[in-house]
């Protein structure tokens, strides 16, 4: 179990040291033994456990960093579904489209972090770590996507992030747009939907009249 944690968090080990990660993993296994023998989900709550350790409280961004790494690991084994074609919007009347619900790619996750840990993760992955790295608190909206070993993570504007996150949670296109506009009044929901389709992230739209797939 300890080795499973260690292999899932190599970037975190790089950040705090392999010995520190090993000690934390041993404590985690002792405190949270798996209830079923399924390593796929074991460790999902390790990031907050790690951040709660007294020895790590000098790193307030640690939980965000380890959480991002956990989701990157999950995304790396995801398999894309066939995306919707760009011309799909022309097949629905505006009122049906507004009431429609969407399905996004299975390997997509939306995270909000209190620190820009995506910059630090990118530095780790590209092996381009500066001698000094300043980590000031700053709310960051991140989209994680992966398919067949290829992982991507990008920052999104607040409105776009909320629009996509609400669609992913099952809200109608109209409801997702309304909630996103509360966060960012400059968002253009139509453009946000088109951008989502061109990003090949949308796999299905269900409306009262018909279901649209590839």
* Strand order across the largest sheet: 1-5-6
Order of helices and strands: HHHHHHEEHEEHHHEE
* Computed Rg: 19 Å
Query: What is the SS-derived class?
Result: alpha+beta
Q: Low-confidence stretches at least 5 residues in length (pLDDT < 50)?
A: none
Strand content: 5-15%
**Number of helical runs?**
10
Main sheet attributes: strand count, strand direction, barrel closure:
3 strands, antiparallel
Number of strands: 6
**Helix percent band:** 40-55%
Outline type: elongated
N- to C-terminal distance = 41 Å
Report the average pLDDT across residues: 90
List the keywords.
214 residues, alpha+beta, three-stranded antiparallel β-sheet, 14% strand
What does this protein structure show overall?
The structure is a single chain. With 214 residues, this protein is of the alpha+beta class. 45% of the residues lie in helices and 14% in strands. The strands form 2 sheets. Strands 1-5-6 form a 3-stranded antiparallel sheet. Strands 2-3-4 form a 3-stranded antiparallel sheet, with helices on both faces. Strand 5 (202-206) and strand 6 (211-212) form a beta hairpin. It starts with a helix and ends with a strand. The mean pLDDT is 90.
SSE arrangement:
Elements: H1 2-8, H2 10-16, H3 18-31, H4 46-52, H5 62-75, H6 94-99, E1 101-104, E2 108-113, H7 117-126, E3 140-147, E4 150-155, H8 158-168, H9 173-183, H10 189-198, E5 202-206, E6 211-212
Antiparallel strand pairs: 1-5, 2-3, 3-4, 5-6
Helix pairs in contact: 1-3, 2-3, 4-5, 5-7, 8-9
